[in-house]
Fold these 2 entries.
Entry 1:
Amino acid sequence: MRVFNSDGSEPEMCGNGVRCFARLIAELENLSGKQSFTIHTGAGLIVPEIQEDGKVRVDMGEPILKASEVPTKLPPNKDQSTVKAKLDVDGLIWNVTCLSMGNPHCVTFSTESNKDLQVDELNLADIGPKFEHHEMFPAQTNTEFVHVFSSNHLKMRVWERGAGATLACGTGACAVVVAAVLEGRAEGSCTVDLPGGPLDIEWREDDNHVYMTGPAEVVFYGSVPL
Ligand SMILES: N[C@H](CCC[C@H](N)C(=O)O)C(=O)O
C-alpha cells in the first residue's frame, strides 16, 4: 500500500488508510467473516484483521521512541526518548512527547501556562503549521492536541503533516495513547475520540505492539483519470 497526503507528499504509513484498504480487499474479493491481511507499507509489514463485527483491528507495530528515529532534534532524555520535552512555538512553551508510528508525531497535553488543553478552542489553522514545519522536526511532524477525560478515555484533534486538520488520524491516535502512558496520564487500553469518531487503541505490554480497532465502510466507488 502506498499513501499520499493531500499536498502530494508520500508518508510512510496511514493507519486509517490501511483499515480502508483491508475493507476494500474484502469487498473486491467478496470475503466475509474474520479476515487477516499482511500489507507492505513504507513503515514495514502491517497486519489488519477484519473482525466478526465488521470492525478492523490493525497491528500497528511497535512505537519508536528514540529521538533521532522519530526524528526530532529536541534534546533527548537519558533513555534517548523525548517524553515530557519542551517545545518553544512562537514564544509559547508546549509540553510535548514525540514518537514515531512509522511516521513522526508530536503529542501535547498542555502548555507551561495551561495544564488542561481545551482542544475544541484551539485554532489549528494558526498553530498547526508552526508545529508541522518546526525546525525541531527535520521530516516535519503530525501533531496531536489531547484532552484527558480519564485514564482510558482521551479526546484529540490533529494537524497532519501534508494534510492539515483532518477528521481522523490512526497513527496519531496510537501515538496519543503511547504518549499518555509514558506521561503517566493513561492506561494501555483507551478509547480515543476524534472528530471523525472513536478508535480503540491498545498498547500491549507482552509484545510492545500497538493495536488499533475501528470501523471501515465503503462510502462510494469512483475512478480517477491519471
Ligand atoms: N499525514 C500523515 C499520513 C497519514 C496518517 C493518518 N491519516 C493516519 O491515519 O495514520 C503523515 O504525513 O505522516
Entry 2:
Amino acid sequence: MNQKVARALTIAGSDSGGGAGIQADLKTFQELHVYGMSAITAITVQNTLGVHGIQEIRPDIVASQIEAVTTDIGVDAVKTGMISNIKIMEAIASLVKKYKLSNLVIDPVMISKSGHALLKEDARLALKELLIPLAMVITPNLPEAEVLVGHSLDNMAARKEAAQYLRDLGAKHVVIKGGHLSDQENADDLFYNGNEFTLLSSPRFHTQHTHGTGCTFSAAITAYLAKGEAPDIAVQRAKNYITDAIRYPLNIGQGHGPTNHWAHRLQEEQNEK
Ligand SMILES: Nc1ncnc2c1ncn2[C@@H]1O[C@H](COP(=O)(O)OP(=O)(O)OP(=O)(O)O)[C@@H](O)[C@H]1O
Ligand SMILES: Cc1ncc(CO)c(N)n1
C-alpha cells in the first residue's frame, strides 16, 4: 500500500470524558481513515454531567506542538476547537500563516452544552480579527453566530445575513448549525459558499446524547478536506457522518452522553452478516 495517507491536525481542548474536544476529533479522523494529530490548548476535567475544571496550556507549548507535527509529519487540513485565551489564539494564527495551513476549519467553541464558558470574553474579538480571516470553513452553532454578529438570529433572513458577515470577515465557507433550533422538526444547517445558500438537512433525533456534536461535525469536515474533497462536498459528507453518530447513540454516562463515532460502520457491518 503506497497510497498517500491524509493527515489532519486538531488544535483543541482535551475532554476527559472522551465525547468532545481532542478525543472526539481523533476518533473521527480515525474512523474516516485520516491520520490524526493533536495540539492540546487546555485540559478540561469533564464528563457527561459537565465541566468540573480547566487547566490552560502555556501558549509556547501549544505553539511547539503545532510546529513539531507540521515540520515533521505535515498537515493536509487543520481544525481549531476550544481556544480559551488570546495569547493561545495569537500563537495559532501566526503559525497558520507561517506554515500556510490553508485547509483551516474553525469551530468557534464558546460554551459547553452544560453551560460552562470555554472561551474568555475578551478573546471573542480576537477570534474575529485573528482567526476567522484565515478560515476555509467556519462552523458556529446558533448562539456562537449570534455572539459573532452581535444580535439575535431568529429567522432565516437574519441567518443568511450573518453568513455573509462572516464571509466578509474572510471565512471562505460558512456553516451556521441548526442543532439548537430544538422546536424545529429537522436539524438543518445553513451552508454558504459565497455564491449560494444551501441547507444541510437531517431528521432531528430526540436524544440527550449530543455532547460533542459540534466537535465531531467539524472534525469530519476537516477529515474530508484532508482527503482532498472540495468544501461543498466535505460539509455534506460530514453532515451524513454526524447524523449517523447521533442517530445510533451509545447511551454512555448519566448526563449528556457522547455521539457514536463508529455508527457510520453499522450499516456496512449489517450488510456483511
Ligand atoms: N438532536 C439532533 N438531531 C439531529 N442532528 C442534530 C441534533 N443536534 C445537533 N445536530 C446536528 O449536529 C451538528 C452539530 O450541531 P450543534 O448545533 O449541536 O453543534 P454544537 O452546539 O457546536 O455542539 P457541541 O457544542 O456539543 O460540540 C449539526 O449538523 C446539527 O444539525
Ligand atoms: C474540550 C471541549 N471542547 C469543546 C467542547 C464543546 O462541546 C467541550 N465540551 N469540551
